[in-house]
Amino acid sequence: GKRSRPHRTGAGARLGAARAALAALAVGLAAASRARNPVFYDREGPWREVVAQYPDSVRGRNNLGTELFRQLEEHGADAARAPALVTEIRALFEGLLSFNQADYYALTNLADLERKVGAPERSAGLLKRSLEIQPAQAGAHLKLATNYHRRNRLAEARRHYQEALQLDPTEADVHNNFALLLRAQGEVDEARRLWRQGHAFRPDNSLLNENRRIIFGPPP
């Protein structure tokens, strides 16, 4: 017949009750945390769980690193949590590169982090590596062009803006940045042509609208 489950008495029953209370407390705290901050849990929590259970998960590491970088961008590099975020993000993406040195997304995400922490040379090196792997990525060309542009390496910036435009002629941010470079170098007509082209694609682009007066104003 059926075997009856033993009935706990004394110390055994008390230990079981204590364990049940701890389990309830942990679940209760987790539930309360999710209820207090559902956005944090929805975006970060599941990927933390994936990485905890499957440390080699490419998707888990990439998505957790991307979410933590979003938080870093939102709260700023000077926020109290920033150093810990930077360390964790770097570890996540460098871990992906240890699995696969040709991971395009890990390279570009790590390049974004290096830009954020003020290491443009390292950022550029990572972007160049990413373009060796996937040379037809307009986004990486734009990031590398902007990196060079900010450091006044204008010939290299121009080349990568041209590559980005050729790959994606509708990307308004390329039009904006390249137009500013050309305007500063005195190529006014071409700068205005690029600005108009970008504005036709994205009339709501905030950077284009903010820079209208620079492109169409008097020489600096």
From TrEMBL:
TPR repeats, residue ranges: 138-171
Signal peptide (UniProt feature, chain positions): 1-32
PROSITE patterns documented for this protein: TPR, TPR_REGION
Keyword Membrane applies: no
Domain of life: Eukaryota
Classification via Pfam families: TPR_11
Keyword annotations of the record: Signal, TPR repeat
Name of the molecule in the record: Tetratricopeptide repeat protein
Source species: Alexandrium monilatum
